[in-house]
Amino acid sequence: MTRSHDLFTQAQKHIPGGVNSPVRAFKGVGGEPVYFVRGEGPYLHDADGQRYVDYVGSWGPMILGHSHPDVIKAVIDTVANGLGFGAPTEAETTMADRVCELVPSMDMVRMVNSGTEATMSAIRLARAFTGRDKILKFEGCYHGHADSLLVKAGSGALTLGVPTSPGVPVALAEHTLTVEYNNLDQVKEVFGHLGGQIATIIVEPVAGNMNCVPPAPGFLEGLRAICDEYESVLIFDEVMTGFRVALGGAQAHYGVTPDLTALGKVIGGGMPVGAFGGRREIMEMLAPLGPVYQAGTLSGNPVAMAAGLATLEGISRPGFHDELATRTRRIAEGIVERARAHDIPMTCNCVGGMFGLFFTEAEQVGNFYQVGQCNLDRFRLFFHEMLKRGVYLAPSAFEAGFVSAAHDEAAVTATLDAAENVFSEI
Ligand SMILES: Cc1ncc(COP(=O)(O)O)c(C=O)c1O
Ligand SMILES: NCC(=O)CCC(=O)O
Q1: pLDDT 10s digits, 245-284
Q2: How far is the CA of 414 from the centre of ligand 2 (A)?
Q3: Atom of ligand 2 nearest to the CA of 265
């Protein structure tokens, strides 16, 4: 009996499933969630006094590590002046300038409160701009929980076995076309039939919600070319990859330019923030300039802007992303090496500060089908054994892992030692 167990029991009385987001519920690995009370650098501390090296990073935002002093100070300084005014503040302009500077495909940007709002609004805009209703997404990609996007979705929807959620009107789901990630031929085929009706292709430029699956060479370039040919809008959902796989996001890393970009996670530094933006002629369709409605009581909240700006400042140091990528690779490849040394077949994918671990004999994992072919039972066992040894991985085989700049030598060594210990015992 632990404090976490007691807290989870109490939580289930008035919170569905005891959690405010399904991915926290440990359904994908069994057992009960850990309740945390404090985060510090690469570590989380739970309600029972245990410390863990954290590879969830609040599902992505904590790229500088937990409780980074500059971020905390920015928040405290801002809070002293009030929590928000429902009127513009200078910090929003500073944020917009900064984002458009870091992500050159974005001429204009609007702040929202979550990644879901960002993708939902970007799609509305793409539909309005093209005058078309259909959208194309990829199986296993997750773009938040807006109705149009909860079709063959990844992340918690996949973990819980409801990739297409009940409650999404059939008439709406019909407009969402889904094809296999990294399969350009399927995209071409669908466009061959329906190209003139497709408003947008929305894609995670590195898939991070079916574990971590990078784009195959030429895939993103191919999507760009198809969108150009059919005059559809290309949306990169960089909620996860933005500011993480490179300072300019996946679009900078792979050198492919979308029309619209959705952002979240890192841009809020741990506060509830999202953003979407892109080509001026599309963005100028937004109210109050244009007819496409989109709004938010708390959008651009000054405290959230302060946390986000401090985080963007922290990651703008030259060399930041190269160091993060090197560290990420060392951790993921270090785990794989240790597994193989004990004859446990395993492979990994790494892009920037994102990684995926796969228990499989395959050399490469490049799409949703291949992720599903991995040994999920072994992942569950590995997850719990690592947890016992003080390493907190995402509680699902369908989620990417995140490394922060705070994952120092001690945290890396503790992780690799724990993995060695687990593989020598399972
Ligand atoms: C790629 C991607 N898009 C959109 C979302 C939705 O963001 P949020 O959970 O902030 O609504 C997420 C994560 O949840 C994501 O990983
Ligand atoms: N990959 C999953 C997420 O990024 C979101 C977390 C959540 O839905 O709580």
Answers
A1: 999 999 999 999 999 999 999 999 999 999 999 999 999 9
A2: 26
A3: 4
Q: Which of 27, 134, 137, 265 is catalytic?
A: 265
- Report which DSSP code applies to 216: P
Cβ(240) to ligand 1 under 6 A?
Answer: yes
Confidence of residue 15 (pLDDT cuts 50, 70, 90): very high
Any atom of ligand 1 within 6 Å of the Cβ of 114: yes
Phi and psi of 173, rounded to 5°?
-60, -30
Predicted TM-score of the model (pTM): 0.98
Whether 142 sits among the annotated catalytic residues: the reply is yes
User: What dihedral do alpha carbons 415, 420, 425, 426 form, nearest 10°?
Assistant: 80
Q: Which one of 3.40.190.80, 3.40.190.150, 3.40.640.10, 2.40.50.140 gives the CATH number of domain 69-315?
A: 3.40.640.10
What DSSP state is assigned to residue 66?
A: B
Q: Ligand 2, atom 2: nearest CA belongs to which residue?
A: 155
Task: Using alpha carbons, select from 260, 225, 265, 221 the residue that is nearest to residue 243.
Answer: 265
Question: Which residue among the candidates 237, 254, 259, 392 is catalytic per the annotation?
Answer: 237
Domain 3-67+318-425, what architecture? Alpha-Beta Complex (3.90)
Distance CA 278, CA 106 (A): 4
Is the separation of the CB atoms in 200 and 123 below 8 Å? yes
How much distance in Å is there from the Cα of 156 to the middle of ligand 2? 7
Structural domain boundaries in the chain: 3-67+318-425, 69-315
